[in-house]
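>> received
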Amino acid sequence: MGDRAGRAFRLFLSGGLRSACCVIVLAGAAGPASAQSDAGLARTPTVTRLVQAFGELESRLDAAARAGDAQTLDRLLAADFELRNAARPGVPLPRARFIERMQAQPAAPARTEQMAVHDFGATAVVSFVLRHDSDAASLFVVDVWGKVGDDWRLEVRYAGPGGTAAQSDAPMPDRSDNLPKKY
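>> returned
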């Protein structure tokens, strides 16, 4: 009985090892094929909860300005809101003039692209590229939102021309930097 049990165990072990080897070989063979097929696919960015929430706030702000909806603009903008433009950083545009300029924007809605949100509790810093149409120059915008009760209000907007590293003296990260995303 001992010899029979030993032989059965050896058969089981050799069969199990054979199966394990087959799984390893098949997994290895499938690995490069799946890596090759994934390489050709375009990646779709995942939208986080914060990017979705602030994307909606930015869209409401744009829609309210284009519609001349003073009540919505009043709810979305802080009382002491100002715009700081890169072209004239020492001359902020006050809230009333900002509203006038927003209402004078083209009828086409603005698009936000490449949005990132950094949540600091009662403050959120939201950066994005703003485009009004495909032919218009883009703006790089940084909005600072403050929480008042359960609502968010835009406290200050920093805006400057979108562009390339060649247009800036500031050090620019390249693709090899791979900073971890915080949103």
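>> Helices lie at 2-39, 49-67, 70-76, 95-103.
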